[in-house]
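[User]
Um, C-alpha cells okay?
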Amino acid sequence: MARAIRFGEYGEADVLRVEDVPRPVPGPGQVLVEVRAAGINPGESSIRRGLLHDRWPATFPSGQGSDFAGVVAELGEGVEEIEVGDEVIGFVETRSSQAEFVVAPAENLTPRPDGVSWEAAGSLFVAGATAYAAVRAVYPREGETVVVSGAAGGVGSLAVQLAKLSGATVIGLASEANHAWLRKLDVVPVAYGEGVEDRIKAAAPNGVQAFVDTYGSGYVDLALRLGVYAGRIDTIIDFAAAEKYNVKAEGSAAASSADVLRELATLIAKGLLEVPIASVYPLDEVQHAYLELEQRHTRGKIVLVP
C-alpha cells in the first residue's frame, strides 16, 4: 500500500484526505517514481471546488497533482534510457502526483540536475510550463517593456525571470512586501491596486509592448488601455476576457513536454532561474497547504513532501 491525496466530492480544502491506496504498478512505457516533492497549484484548487467542472470535471474518488520529482522505483516494459535509482523531474495528466508513489509515462520525465533542489524540481512543471508558454506567447524582445501581473506568485515569479532573459525591461505588479525581491531580479516593481495604470505609465515612459496576466481581475482590460496589441497579451486565468478581446490564453498545456522541463531545470542549475519556495508541508497537512495557497499572497511555490 501507499499513501495518496484523495477527495470524494467537490468542496473546500477540508474534503482533502490522505488515504492508503494500492501501490501503483507501471505499465508498458511507464515508470514508477517514489515522490520526493510535489507542487500544488491554483488550478487544482479550482477543480476541487467544482469551479472548472465544465472544462475539467473530476471523477470521484479523485487524486490530485500534476508535477513531481523523485527517484525511479520500477520500470514498465519497454522503458529504456531510464534506470531504477535515477533522480527525475516529471509530470502526469492523471491527477495523481500528490502521493508517495506515482506512475508516469517515461516520455514525461527528465533527469534532475545537480544544484536543483527537490522542492524546486517537484514544483517546476505546472508553474514553469505555464510561465514558459505565457512569455513565449507575447514574445518580449530586447528594448521592449513587458508587464507581468501577479509577479511574485508561483507562475508570475518565473514569468518575470524568463521575460528578463529576453533582454526586455520587465515591470512586475506585486505587493510592497515583494518589491525588494523583485528588484534583486532586476525587475521594476509596481504596486497593484487603485492607480496602478498611472504607476505603470510612469514606470514605462516609452509604453508597454507586451503583457502577461497571471492573476485575472481586469488586467486584460488594463493591458488594452495601455495600448498593448491584443496578440501580445496572454492571460492564464481570465478565459472570458481572452474570448471577448481575442487575446491569447496560452498556459501549461502549450508547453507540456519533458524538453521544456529540461530547459527550465538547466536554467535553474546554471543560476539563471530561481524557483522561490514559499512553504513546504508534509502530505498530512495538505489542507493547510491549500488554505495558504488560496490566500493568493504567497511568493513562489508551495510544496508537499511525502
Notes: The chain has a mean pLDDT of 95. The radius of gyration is 19 Å. The longest strand covers residues 30-39.
